[in-house]
Write a structure and sequence with these properties.
- By secondary structure, this protein is α/β, with parallel strands linked by helices.
- Helices cover about 40% and strands about 15% of the residues.
- The chain folds into two domains: about 180 residues, Rossmann fold; about 200 residues, Glycogen Phosphorylase B (Rossmann fold, 3-Layer(aba) Sandwich), CATH 3.40.50.2000.
- The strands form two sheets. The protein has a seven-stranded parallel sheet with strand order 8-7-6-9-10-11-12, with helices on both faces. A five-stranded parallel sheet has the order 3-2-1-4-5, with helices on one face.
- Strand 7, helix 10 and strand 8 form a beta-alpha-beta unit.
Length: about 400
């Protein structure tokens, strides 16, 4: 049955290959004169794609590269804050679906893309998009005048895991595989995040202002996340923070977005000792600098977790059973992932009454993972480590 499922996925991708050749010209050996990368998402999605962007930039250093992207709704951070400072593309075009609700607006958007006359589209689909979604986008980009394209492939590992529990590859590797038809040897690339001297200065001043010494143990805690089903109970974070302060003497820095202020304030009000709560008061790059200064981070599956991996700060990552394992684990071998395998996983739900996959993760389990990481290498982070993360088995 597993081979039948793989054959089905292979047939889907062969079908997409045939349709893609019908819509787009063969690449050949001629180098493109302009490249359009299509990739949507916010913090985590963009960070795990930076190795792919870097590989493309290195392969075509003198060719104009444009990124077409959307963070989702307006106000969310995304590629502009991460990719632009890294100089991985020459231009970023940001769109929002709520602005393309009429035929006239959509036609104007397509017309503007046609004027750019892109030679090559590098299409980086989300890993849950199916054949219909990809076919729709093929038509869109062909109408937009794109000449050649790579990347129109479904991610077969979702189906294989859901039915047969076959371990999938991570998101970093999946995206890198999509650009192999361009002849790019995509190995040795790690997720990146831009840090400027003023951001490091902000983090240093912040710690000094709160009386945190350079040699003191610093642990960043992020209790938030995109979906309620990805959140470890707040009461557990409260107990964990109290335990960390009592048993390790760590200075705790609570971080999160403006949407997570109420959550952070609840934790801040109930922990027994003083913590540094900067939730909602920092920019994305300032957050990254604070995480960089820390010895370790404890986080749910979230954008800040991927920031930590990109700046090489070890993470104890608490994962729900909402998604399949491995795909979104923090990149690198310096992290620990705690995830419970329950019979309802993966559910891909936003809400859950039982929430067994997170409730069953104990404070003791997370605390011991923190202790193990601290014993393993406090202050010994290196800049080049990027291999698959390890999982703390239940």
């Amino acid at each position: 049955m597993c081979s039948e499922m793989r054959n089905y996925s292979l047939l889907s991708n062969r079908f997409l290959d045939v349709i893609s050749r019908f819509f787009f010209a063969r690449l050949g050996t001629r180098k493109p004169e302009s490249i359009l990368i299509y990739h949507v998402g916010n913090i985590g999605d963009i960070i795990v794609a930076t190795p792919t962007y870097r590989a493309i930039r290195n392969a075509f250093p003198k060719i104009g590269i444009t990124l077409l992207t959307s963070p989702g709704r307006k106000g969310l951070p995304g590629a502009r804050e991460i990719i632009q400072p890294l100089n991985l593309v020459d231009e970023i075009i940001i769109f929002y679906l709520e602005e393309l609700t009429t035929a006239k607006k959509l036609f104007t958007f397509i017309k503007d893309l046609r004027k750019k006359r892109y030679d090559l589209l590098v299409y980086l689909p989300a890993n849950q998009w199916g054949v219909r979604h990809l076919l729709r986008d093929m038509i869109f980009f062909r109408v937009a005048g794109i000449r050649g394209a790579v990347g129109f492939r479904v991610y077969e590992d979702y189906a294989l895991y859901k039915k047969y529990r076959q371990a999938p590859i991570g998101e970093v590797e999946r995206l890198l595989q999509l650009i192999k038809p361009l002849g790019i040897t995509a190995s040795g690339y790690a997720p990146e995040f831009p840090l400027e001297p003023e951001d490091i200065h902000f983090a240093s001043e912040l710690l000094q202002r709160h009386g945190v010494g350079e040699d003191e143990l610093k642990i960043v805690v992020h209790p938030g996340g995109k979906k309620p089903t990805k959140l470890w109970p707040l009461s557990n974070f409260i107990f964990l923070i109290d335990r960390l302060i009592k048993d390790t003497g760590a200075r705790i820095i609570l971080v999160g977005s403006a949407d997570e202020v109420e959550m952070a304030n609840t934790i801040d009000a109930q922990v027994k000792k003083e913590i540094i709560n900067i939730t909602g008061t920092h920019s994305l790059t300032q957050l990254a600098a604070v995480i960089k200064k820390a010895d370790l981070m404890v986080s749910n599956d979230s954008g800040p977790m991927h920031i930590a991996a990109a700046v090489r700060t070890p993470v104890v990552a608490i994962f729900s059973g909402v998604d399949i394992p491995h795909v979104w684990y923090p990149s690198g071998d310096i992290h620990r992932v705690i995830r419970k395998e329950v019979n309802c996983s993966p559910c891909f739900r936003n809400e859950c009454d039982e929430h067994r996959c997170m409730v069953e993760i104990s404070v003791e389990e997370v605390f011991q993972a923190v202790r193990e990481l601290l014993k393993k290498g406090r202050g010994k982070r290196t800049e080049g480590e990027v291999v698959k993360g390890t999982e703390l088995k239940s």
